[in-house]
Design a protein that fits this description.
Length: 179
């Protein structure tokens, strides 16, 4: 079932976006003017800035661009991953020495790994915290504390009684030999 309010909002957003920014071409259309710098384009790329003349506007291409932008998902990934797992020291030394074009950037690899981890964890089942037995748990803890206080009070009485039994009889303090 389609939520009519959400569909209406999406259509309204599309109309407003279309009024603000007019599309410059259709998917797959080859442009004669560079969309980036406005220079004349005669081939597949702009001779002024290097922008591709063919503009892709499909959802599949957006995913490809996302992967390429984050990971540069090409042969470098397959060179980096085994070294990262088997010999990370060698990978680090080569990166520090400036041999970087063969490998994926550590920051890009880290960000991509975080993205994959959070994506995978979003499908994990969530365990709910059970708060139903919380009052009973609090009462049991209070009882345990009260029992511990009673045991401590009894032990203190025993210590006081033993200390009183060890005191000498009489009021005179014990005499110490000063010599």
């Amino acid at each position: 079932m389609i939520d009519l309010e959400a569909a209406g909002g999406a259509v309204t957003g599309g109309v407003i976006a279309g009024a603000i920014e007019k599309p410059t071409g259709q998917a797959g259309e080859h442009h004669t003017v560079c969309a980036d710098c406005g220079a004349e384009v005669t081939g597949r790329f702009c001779s002024n800035c290097g922008q591709a003349a063919h503009v892709h506007r499909s959802l599949l291409h957006l995913g490809e661009e996302l992967l390429h932008g984050v990971m540069h998902f090409d042969g470098r990934f397959w060179r980096t991953l085994p070294l990262l797992i088997i010999n990370p020291g060698r990978l680090t030394r080569e990166w520090v020495q400036g041999k970087r074009t063969r490998y994926v950037s550590p920051l890009a690899m880290f960000l991509f790994t975080l993205f994959v981890m959070f994506f995978a964890l979003s499908f994990m089942p969530h365990s709910e915290v059970k708060l139903q037995g919380l009052p009973e748990q609090i009462a049991a803890q209070r009882e345990a504390v009260a029992e511990a206080e009673q045991v401590a009070a009894a032990a203190q009485k025993e210590v006081d009684a033993a200390a009183a039994a060890m005191e000498p009889a009489g009021d005179a303090p014990p005499a110490f030999d000063s010599g």
